[in-house]
Design brief:
Elements: H1 2-17, E1 31-32, E2 35-36, E3 67-72, E4 77-78, E5 81-84, E6 87-90, E7 96-100, E8 104-109, E9 112-118, E10 122-123, H2 138-149, E11 160-161, H3 164-169, H4 181-186, H5 188-198, H6 211-224, E12 228-236, E13 240-246, E14 251-259, E15 290-299, E16 304-311, E17 314-322, E18 327-334, E19 340-347
Parallel strand pairs: 3-10, 4-11
Antiparallel strand pairs: 1-2, 3-7, 5-6, 5-8, 8-9, 12-13, 12-19, 13-14, 14-15, 15-16, 16-17, 17-18, 18-19
Helix pairs in contact: 2-6
Length: about 350
């Protein structure tokens, strides 16, 4: 009977010191599985309020970014899968999609990803390729050939429709768009995918559309996104207003510049006006400055443009960009007087 009593006494003594039972004796009681529990978001016992020590609510969920509406355009593309954060879906008849602000949005046909871009109001295949400026980029060309070829009726001019049958058959497939135009059309995986996927379309099985045809279509779409009537203001060595019209082919016409703050008859040619200048803080757009209505120019599919217009005895050259959202900005320079300035405008 003596040994059991001694064992019990020893256990009581050990319990008062480290605890009785199987533990890694001598280990730091704040360690568990290699994680420092004291720094792992435990409840702050000083507050007793169910908060962590940094006042973060226990169990609270992060706030989702706001959701915006956008359009995917190579013509409007219907039936394209997209995902942005926790939001996903299929593009609507106008190419509409939703995306979470500040996050990327990725597009795909079945399992074939064609790329991702920023959450903005209008996206085209150009914005899916880092560094691309227009439809002539080889990767952009490969993407637009793929999309236009999969159009259900084979006529992308009336919109591009990717059917659910094509999407289903494209599941699990992978296509490499990051290669030359020639390598892409010679790629066996691309040829097989195009043959099998187009066989499910109303227009029937077919080959990739020619690359120049695809580029011409994308170029027309990019230019049409920038078409419209614009007006705005010029500033710098002269100031006033301007108007311009951009048609669907990118032609700039009906340019009207009202320079309200320069007397061109008194230009010195040194980049400044003489003391008889009509520029004043009260000058209006119908004031005594010069008006030009003969200007014209051209917009590129990248949005860059140049236009020239005669103003008084000088020629103003406008160089800048027109964005798809309808904003216009850039700089101007007078060829003869050397005057310079900036301009900004919007589509009406």
């Amino acid at each position: 009977m003596t040994r059991p009593l001694l064992a019990i006494g020893l256990c009581i003594y050990l319990a008062s010191t480290w605890g009785c039972g199987g533990g890694g004796g001598g280990s730091d009681p704040t360690q568990a599985g290699g994680i420092n529990v004291s720094d792992a978001g435990q409840t702050d016992t000083n507050t007793g309020s169910g908060q962590t020590g940094d006042n973060t609510q226990v169990g609270s969920q992060p706030t989702e970014p706001p959701v915006s509406q956008g359009q995917f355009i190579d013509s409007a593309v219907t039936g394209l899968r997209y995902r942005s954060g926790s939001d996903s879906g299929v593009t609507e008849i106008d190419g509409g999609f939703r995306c979470q602000e500040g996050l990327k949005v990725e597009f795909a046909v079945g399992g074939i990803s064609i790329g991702e871009g920023d959450c903005v109001s209008i996206l085209t295949p150009v914005e899916l390729v880092p560094g691309a400026q227009d439809e002539t980029n080889p990767i952009v060309t490969n993407i637009i050939r793929f999309l236009q070829t999969l159009d259900d009726d084979g006529d992308p001019a009336n919109g591009i429709t990717i059917t659910s049958q094509v999407t289903a058959l494209a599941a699990g497939r992978v296509i490499d768009f990051e290669q030359s135009i020639e390598a892409f059309e010679d790629d066996g995986a691309v040829q097989t995918a195009i043959a099998e996927l187009t066989a499910l379309t109303s227009a029937g099985a077919r080959m990739l559309v020619p690359f120049r045809q695809a580029q011409d279509h994308m170029r027309a779409a990019l230019l049409s996104l920038r078409a419209g009537a614009y007006n705005g203001e010029i500033d710098g060595d002269a100031s006033g207003t301007f108007e311009a019209t951009i048609d669907a082919a990118g032609n700039v016409s009906d340019v009207v510049v009202q320079d309200t703050c320069t007397d061109h008859d008194s230009d010195t040619g040194s980049g400044s006006s003489s003391s008889s200048s009509s520029c004043s803080s009260s000058a209006s757009t119908s004031g005594s400055g010069s008006v030009a209505t003969s200007g014209s120019g051209q917009v590129e599919s990248s949005g860059g443009f140049t236009a020239e217009v005669d103003v008084g005895n000088d020629t103003y050259v406008f160089t800048g960009s027109v964005d798809k959202d309808g904003t216009m900005s850039g700089s101007w320079q007078a060829e003869f007087s050397g005057k310079i300035g900036i301009f900004e405008g919007r589509r009406q």
